[in-house]
Amino acid sequence: MQQKILILDFGSQTTQLIARRVRELDTFCEIVPYNKFPENDKNIIGVILSGSPYSVYDKEAFKIDLNKIIGKYPVLGICYGAQFISHTLGGKVEAAGSREYGRQNLEYIDFTNPLFKGFENNSQVWMSHGDTITKLPNGFKVIASTQGVENAAFVALDQKVWGVQFHPEVFHSVQGTLLLKNFVVDICGSSQDWSASSFIETTVKELKEQLKDDKVVLGLSGGVDSSVAAVLLNKAIGKNLTCIFVNNGLLRKNEFEDVLKDYEGLGLNVRGVDASQEFYAALSGVEEPEKKRKIIGKGFIDVFSAEALKIQSVKWLGQGTIYPDRIESLNITGKTIKSHHNVGGLPEKMNFQLCEPLKWLFKDEVRKVGRELSMPEHLIKRHPFPGPGLGVRILGEITEEKVKILQEADDIFIKGLKNWKTSDGISLYDKVWQAGVILLPVKSVGVMGDERTYERAVALRAVTSTDAMTADWAHLPYDFLAEVSNKIINNVKGVNRVAYDISSKPPATIEWE
Ligand code: XMP
Question: What DSSP letter does each residue of 138-200 carry, written as one string?
Answer without folding.
Answer: TT-EEEEE-SS-S-SEEEEGGGTEEEESS-TTSTTSTTHHHHHHIIIIIIT-------HHHHH
